[in-house]
Amino acid sequence: MASEFFITFEDAPGYIKQKNKLIENAKKLPTFRKIVGVHQLQFKDSSKEGWEYDVRLFFEPTNIVIEVSESSQKVYADMKIYIENIRKILKLRIIDEDGGDVNFFSQ
User: Fold this and answer.
1) Residue 25 falls within a domain, yes or no?
2) In the sheet where 3-9 sits, what is the strand order?
3) pTM of the model
4) Residue range 22-36, pLDDT digits in tens
């Protein structure tokens, strides 16, 4: 069963302005596999079998949804780096499905 986390932004207009850049930066991660539609990116540890993807990012109008389908240290490491890079330009909060703060994507 997949777990979902939400990256929310204090500055929603800033996120909207940076959204295309954030998508392009995510596509540069080593575990990036493909983009589906305009706003769904899939990531996969190529050394593992199973699901077509381990993690998907959905770039919603006001937030980013992280859907984790399969645990992978490589994808997890990429997500940590990616989120830390976003933190350099936008103030964000990561919450779980219940609205609680999530810290394991932080360094």
Assistant:
1) yes
2) 32-36, 40-43, 55-59, 63-68, 3-9, 92-96
3) 0.91
4) 999 999 999 999 999
